[in-house]
Amino acid sequence: MILSAGTGVGKTLTAQNILLQAQATDRPFKEVYICTCSLGTEEWNNIEPTGIMTVIPDFEMFDRTKKSLLIFDDRELLNLSRDEQNKLSTIFRFASTHRNLSVMLLFQSWFDIPPIARKCSNVFIFWKPRSSRELTLISNNVGLEPEVIHELFEENLTSPYDSLCVDLTVGSPWPMRKNIFAPILNENGECKLPSLIYHRKKKERARDKKLREEGDEDD
Fold this sequence. Notes:
Shape: elongated
Number of helices: 6
Number of strands: 9
Strand order of the largest sheet: 3-2-4-5-1-6-7-8-9
Structural class: alpha/beta
């Protein structure tokens, strides 16, 4: 899972709420680790993590008999040594499936997220970035047309605190949600990833309606 947003919109609070929701189920995480840039961070004290670290861990530290969560919180993951790159790749390619490990990443910019994380993640939560180019890059990574994702933020996610969740998990009943939990529906009340055709038709209908109204005024 990837969460991407600038400062001040509630990215960390959202991640903690997701974790608390998971802990309230019948299959909670037995161990939760935070990998961040400072051991002195206090942002995660309320969840009482199993451990806090600044180095990328070896996959061997995760017990396959215990459901575990590893959270990377604004930890630099691009300019890594070869050894660190291998550790990170192993976590995503091997430990996530063979060590009963879930991984959550929090970043302030989509450009800072390593390619291996974007390729292996199946849930993406992001707030509208300042850069239109960054939003277009996000759309390409999550499988949405750039025009669609821009329109979603213009029409459905109008507050700077609104986030879009794209859930590519196989069989997810709500693959696209506003602020994590609210399904985004099309005009037929169906919850599905919107198509560019639908949005274009919606614009065309609005344009035709405006032209008809202008024509009636002229008459």
